Amino acid sequence: MDLVRRVQAMQEMARQARGTGKKIAFVPTMGALHDGHLSLVRRARELGDVVVVSVFINPKQFGPAEDFARYPRDLARDADLCIQEGVDHLFAPEPDEMYPPGHRTFVDMEGLTTVLEGSARPGHFRGVLTVVMKLLHVVKPHFAFFGQKDAQQALIVRRMVKDLNLDAEVVVAPTVRHEDGLALSSRNAFLGPAERAAATVLSRALGRARQMVEREDVRSARAIEAAVREVLAAEPRARIDYVAVVDAETLEPREEITGETLIPLAVFLGGTRLIDNALVRPPAAPRPPAGDKA
Ligand code: PAF
Fold first, then answer.
1. Is 37 a catalytic residue?
2. pTM score > 0.85 for this model?
3. Pocket of ligand 1 (CB under 6 A)
């Protein structure tokens, strides 16, 4: 595996791979790799001839009061994991390499980026879309992999790829969870032991929502949201940032659960903010065509 630090070198490798008819499969990350990322890498290995992982903690997607400075960084460990997984190229540019002095172009999107995470973290998705667009231009992948844990991110990246006619297929892979239900996240490393134990409340709350929709035939979004909030409120260490019940494609609030529905939530445990979500649909609702949505 080679470690690539320069945009131009990465672009050259990508051009060569494409020139020889190889399929490039790309997993963009901010490092602190865990099994969730590695599940994406394994999927990438299946679909691509050349696997590229990027590790870039993108300053443009963090607000001024957010955790950019303390975000976990361990490139040596990430590189070891990539070697073990058979990654071909690890692209790890410095911030100045991705945003040289004078950089002033950003990618923005209407609507989908200003609700939920976008409302809680103003400017976040502008930073995400900008860096993903740049990474897609640099790595030139045929396939790009994102996790369902960041459901809104996966949705807007898919939207951008479609809207801007980018030559990459977005693949969204299921959330990987610990045995007790907590979704894997680099930010879990910030949790103290008591917070870590309390963090299972997120998946328990979503499990309750899934049970209501899929087993108890509940269709009222208001009732489902109330039940999720009740489970979360029973955990004294948890502070709700938001809970919503929205259309999985438009992110508009639902009143009735009629089709595919996303239940996203964000919860603080001490100073750590965790997100998770459940994608639910009434048992009788038709499934969307495969690969059509996050
Ligand atoms: O999900 C992430 O780790 C980041 O948002 C991404 C997609 C790598 C862009 O910085």
1. yes
2. yes
3. 28-30, 58, 61, 128, 131-132, 150, 153
